[in-house]
Amino acid sequence: MKTVQAPSKVIGDKNLEFNLAAPSHKPFIVAAGKALSSPVRIDILNLIKTKPLSLQEISRLLQLPLSSTAMHIRCLEDAGLVITENQPGIRGSMRVCMCHFLSFHLEAYDANIDTAGRSTLYDMPVGNYYGFDVVPTCGLAGMEGVIDIFDNPISFYSTDRLNAQLIWFNLGFLEYRYPNKINPLLTLQELSFTLELCSEAPGYSEHWPSDITFFINEHEIGTFTCPGDFGVRRGRLTPDIWPMGRTQYGMLTVISLRPDGGYINEVLVNSETTLSTVGLGEYPFISFKICIKEDAVNKGGVNIFGEKYGDYAQGICMRIVY
Questions:
Q1: How many Cα atoms within 13 Å fall on the side-chain side of residue 131?
Q2: What is the DSSP string of 98-130?
Q3: How does pLDDT run along the chain (322 residues), one tens digit per residue?
């Protein structure tokens, strides 16, 4: 944001941008709101938006007392919308007033919003799950290796789980909950989740199919059949402490919900579950669940990678697109 505290002599050279979520912007927003609340001050800005005018000229053109004109100008100055300077006149000096902005923009939502793409992105650490129900083989690993106990669901309660960079299980689910900051004033086009994953085999196996099913707000979106558990090479980010012979990297997978249905990796998999049917306005959170179902044809488990394991430096990313 260009500051309103450094006046320039150039008329209309500033694009004033403010955000309601920024505490430092509050004094400027309040001052600008006060300044723009008067029709007279709007008329003054219209007069001086293309050329400087003296107080006397503004007073005469708007048929206002000079004292009232000076009061209105002072209010506009306090908001950073107008600057004045003393210039020589016929009878001493005179105050000349100049418009000090080109545009004024007030953003209501937080700085996570990408105003170019109209999207919001949240990157959830893989260890920050809300709920789980898992069956071995299962476990968690971080930058120091295995967290707690191999193949015991007790490790999923570990206080160190937030440090997890790799999570695996054979059957069951993990649930993540994201803040529901969908802007009701904008038209929602897509809700998507992106994560790196693969199947879960003993050690690893390039040919180990697994049916991994995804849910949004407890509504089933679809199932992705991952072809294998990948470990033939080291993951680009996987630390040396994690030995070869185990899972190393996964496939970047995108689950999307749009007005016409659910997609996995850009393939329409469910035309009945859409943005309007999953109750996005009902809860303060958005639930995303990764599941290996009991009735899956290929019960090959799942590995979920964090930002410091595998090939992609991210957790589980939720994107809201308008």
A1: 9
A2: EE--SEEEEE-S-TTEETTTTEEEEEE-TT--S
A3: 222 233 334 444 466 777 776 777 888 888 888 989 999 999 999 999 878 899 999 999 999 999 999 999 999 998 889 988 887 766 667 888 888 877 777 766 554 545 455 889 999 999 999 999 999 999 999 999 999 999 999 999 999 999 999 999 999 999 999 999 998 888 999 999 999 999 999 999 999 999 999 999 999 999 999 999 999 999 999 999 999 999 999 999 999 999 999 999 999 999 999 999 999 999 999 999 999 999 999 999 999 999 999 999 999 999 999 9
- Which residues share a beta bridge with 168? 139, 303
What is the DSSP pairing of strand 316-321 with strand 119-124? antiparallel
- The values of phi and psi at residue 225, to 5°, are -95, 105
What is the bridge-based pairing of β-strands 103-107 and 15-19? parallel
Tokens linked to 42: 């709007």
Nearest to 285 by CA among 165, 122, 127, 174: 122
* Contact indicator for 253, 264 with CB cutoff of 8 Å: yes
User: What is the CB neighbour count within 10 angstroms for residue 123?
Assistant: 13
Rounded-to-integer distance, Cα 271 and Cα 16, Å: 44
The answer to whether 226 and 210 have CB atoms below 8 angstroms apart is: yes
Range list of β-strands (E), 8-144: 15-19, 53-54, 82-89, 92-99, 103-107, 113-114, 119-124, 131-142
DSSP class of 85: E
d(CA 191, CA 262): 10
